[in-house]
TrEMBL record:
This is Formin BNI1-like. Coiled coil: none annotated. It comes from Hibiscus syriacus. WD repeats lie at residues 278-319, 480-511. Keywords: Nucleus, Repeat, Ribosome biogenesis, rRNA processing, WD repeat. The lineage of its organism: Eukaryota, Viridiplantae, Streptophyta, Embryophyta, Tracheophyta. It comes from the Eukaryota. PANTHER family: TRANSDUCIN FAMILY PROTEIN / WD-40 REPEAT FAMILY PROTEIN-RELATED (PTHR45176), TRANSDUCIN FAMILY PROTEIN _ WD-40 REPEAT FAMILY PROTEIN-RELATED (PTHR45176:SF1). Residues 396-655 form the WD repeat-containing protein 75 second beta-propeller domain. InterPro entries: Beta-prop_WDR75_2nd, WD40/YVTN_repeat-like_dom_sf, WD40_repeat_dom_sf, WD40_rpt. Transmembrane segments: none annotated.
């Protein structure tokens, strides 16, 4: 049992069903079907093994056929599939054995009335890559436009309509008579031939522009094509192809059309009557679409504003403040419903023509891009263990709460009030986010970047959740909590009424809230947090912090040392041994008396410390990206970054592994290899009673679940203690012997700190017989070899002392 999610909803344009009640969305190697009434997912089409690039709904042949739910999908796995998405059920698979980047089926839209009901071949046009080896190495990987006979399940001979340097998206006209692509500064337009012959010639024209063209769209009734370029201009060509696509090739009117004055705005000898330009967008145009009646043109781009142009007059109106660059605008068969896809992985359902947002399908937000100096402050991810949620920081200074079980966004919390617009420079960075155990409280830290070396501000904020949908309200804000030093970590006490924040400035602070306010629902908005204690250790930077399971001990990393404190009395209890590099992560392992620490730098280390003995239990020399501990178990998981040299051999391109440990055993109980581990996160989740039936395995409910989120915020939730959990998000479990080959297994703390020991036979018994040494001159060989192979002290002392002391015979007088 595995729950996968976090996929992109905007990798390809979505499409509405014929009755406009469903929206089909390409999500990685599946197609998710959403209800337009609720915005929730109702089913999915699963079968492709690579990214789905196109989904096309079969239009109804009559008004009564609108209830039919059939669609075609194309994928990079080289297959085209035919589905009944009302069931859902796979009906047909066509394997053309080349990756498909885009697909259109003009035959859907151009069906003569006299041909309705007749069986005719169905043709699709696909944008593919030719991977066949050729003598000319420059043509070994050619991007081609090909024709495919869907009725015969094959490509049409060697017919190649065009070649480009990179895969291009195909756009078909609503009439089904034309399709085209934008290729740098050119527009290539093909006229779809009659359906009678699959080898009929396909005529093409090319229109030219001075700037790179980014998107094109066709008018539904007239011979008009519109395009957007990288500068924000919108160009419309009227009467394109009047010469090349007419029946008589326009011979009689050749001279009239070639007169430059008769073709205003048209470059050179382009086959068009008129070209006009509109300009409002300040950056490249990503969205262009004509309305169903052709009276309006919708455009959008990086500004996050949808512009509606009146074709005849050029007048415009706007839907502003969408908050993210626009990618696709799709009309539905229902003229009162449309959708718009945004770069922040959201799809908005719009009520037309007022353009009000009816519903929003929220996907997980993409990782933030921050200045290099702030990349090491953490990934800004926190797990709500009880509710199965994850909190993520976003580019627009928000914290998104995302349901790992439902695979949808729950809410967003505006951390700092900023008039953020897409494309603006980053001015504020959310460096840390922490949640209480029950998920009712949240704490965030942020840094306002200095401008030209002037200014800069560090803030610590405390939040409390409302009654529904994780709507948090700000309760306390602390400016410069550690003077001008940045905050390295924030963590909650198990009870939730205490928070510790550590800083690189050399101190940590314990914050407490008013317990009476927490217990009264009427005073939830008035409680506040105050500083309870301040601690430091030899002015060392405090780099990490963690509370024990019962909250009686606070562990704070003082760079390379671990200091243990009584959080209530602010008394230093003990200091644990020193590591070679600064510690960046601390976590108590459930209810055991063990503490796990991860350090980074040139000598990274994963170490487990015994609180009862105040000493190191075991350690590995591993580069750790994340650590998670189970609350009620003595187990923890570590996300390890693999050396680059091992990615392409043993681990087949995967850059990380998840190691599951028992606190007292240095040998991992389970190992999984993963992709995109850099920037990833781990978290144990408690099983919610409402999901018991859904996540039960063989009738048994798992004690806990482990969530892994990769650097692209794709995730998988699984039972780490189930023997059948052999893969994690498109990767297979790696045997322990594979880790040992790369130096990741079978190493203890001594080896990770002081270097490798000489190789020895790992198959021999764990307690081999101690070899005996010669008794005549034992001092020459007694200390040779590795330290772990020295004889016991009982044999060592007798042999050594006898070699130094000369035996004398005692004479009794």
């Amino acid at each position: 049992m595995m729950i996968r999610g976090g996929r992109s909803l905007v990798s390809s344009p979505p499409v509405f069903s014929n009755d406009a009640n469903k929206l089909l969305v390409c999500t990685s190697n599946t197609v998710s079907v959403f209800s337009t009434a609720t915005g929730l997912q109702i089913s999915s089409l699963e079968g492709h093994t690579a990214l789905v690039t196109s989904v096309l709904v079969v239009p109804p042949s009559s008004p009564a056929a609108k209830v039919l739910c059939y669609c075609w999908t194309a994928s990079l796995d080289g297959t085209i599939r035919y589905w009944d998405f009302s069931v859902p059920e796979l009906m047909k698979t066509i394997d053309i054995r080349v990756p498909i980047f885009s697909m259109v089926i003009p035959s859907f839209l151009d069906v003569p009335a006299e041909d309705k009901g007749k069986h005719r071949n169905l043709f699709a046009y696909v944008s593919t890559i030719d991977t066949k080896e050729t003598q000319d190495k420059s043509k070994a990987s050619r991007r081609q436009i090909r024709k495919c006979n869907l009725s015969k399940s094959c490509l049409v001979g060697r017919l190649i309509l065009g070649e480009t340097k990179k895969p291009e998206v195909l756009t078909v006209s609503p009439s089904g008579k034309f399709f085209g692509i934008c290729n740098k500064c050119k527009l290539h337009i093909w006229k779809v031939p009659d359906q009678g012959s699959e080898h009929a010639a396909v005529r093409k024209i090319t229109l030219h522009h001075t700037k790179k063209i980014t998107v094109i769209t066709f008018h539904p009734t007239q011979r008009i094509i519109a395009s957007g370029d990288v500068t924000g201009r919108i160009l419309t060509w009227r009467g394109f192809g009047n010469r090349a696509f007419s029946g008589d090739n326009g011979v009689d009117n050749q001279k009239l059309i070639n007169v430059q004055e008769d073709k205003p705005g048209v470059r050179d000898i382009d086959d068009a009557d008129l070209c006009s330009t509109w300009h409002w967008h300040s950056a490249e145009v990503n969205v262009l679409s004509f309305s169903l009646d052709g009276a309006y043109l919708y455009s959008g781009g990086k500004e996050g504003v949808l512009v509606v142009w009146q074709i005849d007059t050029g007048k415009k109106k706007f839907l502003p403040r969408i908050g993210s660059p626009l990618l696709y605008f799709i009309d539905s068969p229902d003229p009162t419903l449309s959708s718009i896809s945004c770069a922040d992985n959201q799809i908005h359902l719009l009520k037309m023509p007022s353009m009000g947002i009816l519903k929003t399908i929220s996907g997980i937000k993409a990782p933030c891009c921050y200045p290099e100096m702030y990349e090491g402050l953490g990934n800004g991810i926190a797990f709500d263990q009880t509710a199965g949620l994850v909190a993520l920081r976003t580019e627009n200074y928000c914290i998104q709460f995302y349901s790992l079980f439902d695979d949808r966004g729950i809410s967003e919390v505006q951390v700092c009030e900023r008039n953020h617009q897409p494309g603006d420079d980053v001015t504020v960075i959310v460096t840390a986010v922490a949640l209480s155990v029950d998920g009712s409280l949240m704490s965030t830290s942020e840094v306002k970047l200095a401008e030209e070396g002037i200014g800069g501000l560090v803030c610590l904020k405390f939040w409390q959740a409302g009654s529904q949908n994780k709507e948090f309200s700000l309760s306390t804000i602390v400016y410069e909590p550690h003077r001008d030093a940045s905050i390295s970590a924030v963590t909650f006490h198990p009870s939730g009424n205490m928070v510790v924040s550590s800083s690189f400035g050399g101190d940590f602070k314990v914050w407490r809230c008013n317990n009476d306010s927490l217990q009264s629902d009427q005073m939830r908005q008035t409680f506040s947090w105050t500083c309870h204690a301040v601690g430091s250790y030899k002015k060392k930077p405090m780099t990490a912090a963690a509370f024990s399971a019962d909250g009686s001990v606070l562990a704070v990393a003082a760079e390379t040392l671990i200091t243990l404190w009584n959080p209530y009395k602010n008394v230093l209890l003990a200091v644990l041994g020193e590591t070679l590099t600064p510690i960046v992560n601390l976590s108590f392992i459930g209810k055991s008396d063990n503490l796990v620490a991860a350090s980074c730098g040139s000598n990274p280390q994963l170490s487990v410390w015994s609180m009862s003995k105040l000493s190191l239990s075991w350690s590995y020399k591993l580069r750790i990206e994340a650590v998670a501990s189970a609350v009620d178990l003595s187990s923890f998981a570590a996300l390890v970054l693999l050396p680059e040299s091992s990615n392409e051999t043993t681990f087949k391109g995967r850059d990380g592994v998840i190691l599951l440990y028992n606190a007292t055993d240095p040998v991992p109980t389970a190992v999984w290899s993963v992709r995109k581990a850099k920037g990833g996160a781990l978290g144990f989740l408690q099983v919610n009673p409402s999901f018991v039936e859904e996540i039960s395995i063989d009738g048994k409910t798992p004690e806990v679940l482990l969530a892994y989120m990769n650097g692209d915020h794709e995730y998988v939730v699984f039972d780490p203690f189930c023997k059948d959990a052999k893969e994690v998000n498109m990767s297979q479990k790696v045997s322990h012997s594979a880790l040992e080959v790369k130096g990741l297994g079978g190493q203890y703390g001594y080896v990770s700190i002081y270097g490798e020991l000489p190789e020895f036979d790992k198959k021999r018994p764990e307690t081999p017989c101690v070899p005996s040494f010669p008794s005549e001159r034992p001092w020459e060989t007694i200390f040779s070899g590795s330290s772990h192979s020295l004889p016991p002290l009982t044999k060592l002392c007798s042999s050594f002392l006898e070699s130094l002391l000369e035996k004398r015979t005692v004479t009794v007088e």
